[in-house]
Amino acid sequence: MEKEEALNQPLRLKPDNQLSPQSLRLIQDSEQHVREVAERHQLPWDAGMDNTVYALARQARDQGLTGITHLKVADGQIRFAQYDGLTLKDGALDARTAANTEARQSIDQMAQADEQPTQQQATVVSAPTRAMASPAMAM
C-alpha cells in the first residue's frame, strides 16, 4: 500500500539553493498542469510523470518563460504558454522525450542556466571601467 501511495506522489527534492526563484516557479507551475492532465485522463503518477514535470519546466526556462499559464497535450506533443495579459510566449516539447528525460538531468540544466547570468554579471563587474582607470577619479 505504501509503495502505491509513493507512486502517486510527485517527486520531492530536497531544497536546492542552486535553482533560481524563476526555475522553482516553473517547476511548481509545470507540476500543477501535468497533475491536472494526469487526473483528467486518470493516468497513474509515476517516474515518467515526474520526468515530464522537470523536462517541461526546463524547456519553458529555455524558451524564456517565467511561468506556465496554459498547457495542452495532443498527438504526443506538449504545448505550453505564458500569457501575462499583454504578450503570449509559447513552446512545445515531445511528450515521450519529456517522460524519458531523467528529472535530475533537467534540474541540472536549469541550475546551469540559472548560474549563467550571475557569471556574466560577475565578469562585467570585475572588468575595470574607463572612469575607474582615470587618474582624475582617484581620490
Q: Can you put this structure into words, describing what you see?
A:
There is one protein chain. The C terminus is likely disordered. The radius of gyration is 20 Å and the shape is globular. It has one domain. Helix 3 packs parallel to helix 5. It has a three-stranded antiparallel sheet with strand order 1-2-3. By secondary structure, the chain is of the alpha+beta class. Helix content is 55%, strand content 14%.
SSE inventory with pairings:
Blueprint (H helix, E strand, L loop, with lengths): L1 H6 L13 H20 L6 H16 L7 E5 L2 E7 L4 E7 H6 L2 H24 L3 H4 L6
Antiparallel strand pairs: 1-2, 2-3
Principal-axes shape call = globular
Q: Counting H and I runs of at least 4 residues, what is the number of helices?
A: 6
Structural category is alpha+beta
Low-confidence stretches: 6-11, 121-139
H/E topology pattern: HHHEEEHHH
Strand content: 5-15%
Multimeric state: single chain
* Biggest pleated-sheet summary: 3 strands, antiparallel
The N- to C-terminal Cα distance equals 73 Å
Mean pLDDT: 83
* Rg, nearest Å: 20 Å
Secondary structure: number of strands = 3
Integer count of domains: 1
**Overall helicity:** 40-55%
Q: What order do the strands of the largest sheet run in, or round the barrel if closed?
A: 1-2-3
Region (Disordered): 1-20
